Amino acid sequence: MLTIRKLLIASLVLGSCGLGFALYGQENDTKMYLEPKGKGEGEKEADSIYTGKVIAYGELLSAPYYVEFRNDTVWINDIPIIPPIRTFEEEQPNIIVSETRKLQQEISKQCFSDYMKDVEKLGVDGAKNMILNKYLADSLVEQIEFYPSSTGITIKFTDGFETHSGFFGEIRTDGKLVDYNRVATEEELIEVRKVELDMIRTQLSKGFLKIFGYCYGLDIQPGRAQGVINTLESIARGEQTYEQIYANDRTLLPSPRTFWKEFELKKDSWK
Questions:
Q1: Residues 4-19 pLDDT 10s
Q2: Which residues pair with 162 in a beta bridge?
C-alpha cells in the first residue's frame, strides 16, 4: 500500500544527485509479472537513451534504453519498472506474537485512528483530551504523549512496551490535520510516476546507473557506476565473493536484501 509519505520519499531520492535508496511501496495487487502492452492512445513514444546503465530485477539491460510511460506504468525496454513487479515469493517469517502484544498494537492503531478523527471534529486540544480520557482508563496503558508539531503519538504500556504512531503527519497553524500516511489515490500515483519518468530520463542522460527492483530503487553516480557493474560481474564469475568485497569497499555493493535475491536469479546473464 503506497502512502503519501512513501511518494514523498521516493520523489526526493530519485531527485538526488548522490547514491540514493528508495523503498517503493507495494500496492496490494502487485503482480508476479506483467506482459508488455502496446502504447496507449495519446501516450508519448519512448525516447532512445544510449548513456547511463540500467539494472532491472537483477539483470543488466543493454542500451539503448527506451523509457516510456504507458498503461499508467513506467517502462524501460518493455520491462515494467514503476510500479514494480514481484519477482519471487518471499518466505514469511514465523514470528510468534503474544496475545498481550497484539492487544497493545490494536490499542495503538485505534488510538491514532480516533485522534485523527477527533482533531477534525474537536480541534487539537479537544482531541487530546478525548484520547487521554478514553485510553488512560485502560489498565494496559500507563502514559500517552503527543508531539506538538506532528500527529505523532507515543503510548507507553504498563509492561514497558511502547508504540509510536503518526509521525509523518502535520498539524498546521490553522489547526487542520495533514496525514501523510493516508493511502495515495490512483491519480496521485500516476502523477508521481510521470515525475519519476522524467527523472529517470534525465539521470540516464547524465550517465547514472539506475537499479530497479521489487521493492527498492538505487541511483548511483556516473563516477561510481562502472565500478559497481564490474563488481557484480566479478561476483557472478566467481572471481570474488560478496564477503571479500564487503570487507574492502562496501560502497560497491547494492545494499537491499531483495536485490541480492534478484541478482542470484539472473546471475548467469552476467557471466
A1: 445 544 444 444 333 3
A2: 156
What pLDDT, in 10s, does the model give residues 223-236?
999 999 999 999 99
Strand partners, 209: 53, 220
Interhelix angle 242-249/222-236, rounded to 10 degrees, is: 150
- CA pair distance 85, 63, nearest whole angstrom: 21
| 65 vs 202: CA distance, rounded Å | 12
C-alpha cell at position 162:
511502547
Q: How far apart are CA 83 and CA 32, in angstroms?
A: 12
Question: Which residues are within 8 A (CB) of 206 and not within 5 positions of it... i.e. 6 or more apart?
Answer: 51, 52, 222
Q: How far apart are CA 224 and CA 215, in angstroms?
A: 22
Distance CA 54, CA 62 (A): 8
- Assess contact for 262 and 255: CB atoms under 8 A: no
* Phi, psi (deg, nearest 5) at residue 153: -135, 130
Sign of the dihedral defined by the CA atoms of residues 19, 25, 30, 35, in that order: negative
Residue 174: predicted pLDDT = 67
Instruction: Indicate the helix (H) or strand (E) that contains 204.
Output: helix 186-205
